[in-house]
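#random but structural
TW: two for the price of one
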Amino acid sequence: MATIAINKRATFDYEILEKYEAGLMLTGAEVKSIKTGRISLKESFVTIKGSELYLTNANIPKYSFAGELQSYEPTRPRKLLVRKSEIKSLIGKARTQGLTLIPLRVYTKKRLIKLEFALAQGKKAFDKRSDIAKRDAKRKIERALKKR
């Protein structure tokens, strides 16, 4: 498994509760663009429409060697391929508990492109500050141990 893109803000802004894996419905030019590493998960999210999941606002630029593509939209919603039973449980959890679905990373699994997304709960400002303080303390300890 080779990771292509990571959503770095996800773990800072959200508390990850459960992780899921999904396939992506893409066009051929989008697949080639992603395999060259041209995808951004920044400010993207997973939406629920009816009984289907969509990756919304993920930026996949046009493949540079593709011919002329008619009205290509780089941030169009892309359908996620997930089992019906998982979708039903996700819809129930997201609606009743007030949780959100956020993409974590895009990676290849053999020849397929997969998306890892998570059921997450937003962090409050004080949670973020405590995480930053813990990270700084850990860095200071590691520096002190390196000097010895």
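TW: number two ↓
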Amino acid sequence: MTDEREADSDLFEVLSPGIITTVQDLGRFGYQQYGVPVSGGMDGFSLRVANMLADNTEESACLEMTLQGPTLKALRPCYVALTGGNLQPSLNDQRIEMWTAYPMKKDDVLFLGNAVSGCRAYLAVAGGFEVPRLLGSRSTYLRGSFGGYEGRMLRRGDILRGGRAQPRNKVRYLSREDLPQYLEIIKVRVLIGPQNDFFTKNGIETFLRSEYEVTPESDRMGYRLKGPTIEHSGEPEIISDGVAVGAIQVPGSGMPIVAMRDAQTTGGYPKIANVTSVDVDKMAQLKPGDKVRFEQVELEKAHLLVRQHMEYLDNLGKKIRERDLAPEFPDDDTLLRWQGAIT
């Protein structure tokens, strides 16, 4: 009986895993005091919208795909949504669009290639991906080898399981005006501190006036940047204290490190600033060679940005739910007209 139930939930066979493909949801909260990182989707906005398009709850598990996506064979009919960086997706060798949800039939093959914009993409399936919850989350923490699919990246031959959902024949998509733009140079808003007294006035001005480049050593744990040296006022070390997602540490090299979703929970380098929570998602779409500039905002402004972002997400969900446009799967030309010929 157990084997029959498991077979009934089989959803995809992994024909090719991509570079770094993991199961992620919104993250694992309340355990940093025990040394457990938050993890979860690096770009929370794209993950949430993928779940909206697939008719899931926003905390449902998705696949996060970095720089190059997987090739997946459907083992039963399903409904999938793609968001985030453009991985040039195709369904049965026919080009399809990002930021859109599609029905798939049994034995259909979904291919995701190399990123031509952004860094990370998200694949949601109606009903969500089924992996065990650990500490309240289905997210993968690679360095700890737990969560997600056996605590690791996907491999060829893996069988992904998913929950059952109402069959759909309709295509859903994001309007052109709602699509994020992935630029190679971005501006990120930050709150200065909490250890800004560990830096000279010139050091803080350098940080705020300069352009920094993402290095190849960047990953889910942190983005290592290179650019003008940030000057410390004394020793570049502190007694270890908490590290929040988005914290910007500056070690003795004077080169900033931005803590990301898998960041350690404590650290001994002084923190010059913290990326506002709404802009962490923007950082997540930077790839090596892309550049970032930092803009100071005050706490009141950061709170306002969060409120505006949550209101925007609520309104976006309503727009998506109201946009069931097609009784059947449309041809490519029709879909492109709906999306305003997005490339």
